[in-house]
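User: Hey, quick favor. My workstation is busy. Could you predict this chain's structure for me?
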Amino acid sequence: MAYNWQPSADIATIKRRAQYLADVRRFFAERDVLEVETPILSQAAPTAPYMDSFTSDFIPFGSSSRQTYYLHTSPEFAMKRLLAANIGSIYQIARVFRNGEQGRLHAPEFTMLEWYRPELSLNQLMDEVNQLVQQVFGLNKISRLSYRGVFEFYLKINVFTCTDEQIKQCALTRIDGLPSDLELDRDGWLELLLSHVIEPRLAAMNLPVFIYDFPASQAQLAKIKKDEASNDVADRFELYMGGVEIANGYNELLNANELLQRFSDNNEQRQQQAMPKMPIDYHLLAAMESGMPVCSGVALGFDRIIMLALNKQEIRTVQCFAFNHA
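Assistant: No problem, here it is.
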């Protein structure tokens, strides 16, 4: 059998990637943001139903017992424990792993740039992301649109006042090929509309945009606040460039009890979907109970932003070796 041993990315791209890494480190050094490294393996894992983690067994020498560890999907939990220890502003360039994700824009193993800024509000963090995107990657300035505003502009619906059935009918009308008996919750229908209708239109307009103030049900690990219309919203943003999600930022939730409840709710959803429950990260909860500083944080897909900067069409073309070529 002949094996194709060649890299997935061309040598020029690999060299350019190395320069981007150096430029990112310079960007943060100029702002006194400390680079950290945290473990890839953890005894806990994200509970979110849309996330599936890789597992690995630890077997001590001379023992037949096995302890399951999880490859991290993000360095978030460990970095927040450092924040609770008063380390200050930090960033990490991490290899992360998500089981089942593979395609033009997805890979089971990829690189994430994640950073946390106790000194910055969420709006100030968006400013910093804007600076990074322009200074390091030479991409366009980013506009800002609220989640409610973008749905009203493109779909003529108010996501905070319309019914579940109205959202469903909007999706069935505007997205070809959806079966009429498809069963999704409210957020599932909204996600379909965002990914299949709104994102392509943003891409066609070549409009890099922060979408902020998501429905409170999509808070994930962000705080809940009131918007200007007194709706409960998640104090978070997502960055879309070329119609592709690039980054996800939060005004970080600091309440350990509320976070535990969200983890528990997620595990209930997983069981309803015939997915295994995930072990909860009680180290993180203990760190939050000890007092984590008010901060904003963001995770940015490093491979995806390189794709945009170099006008590449597949994630494999900016990685030295693609997953199925490893």
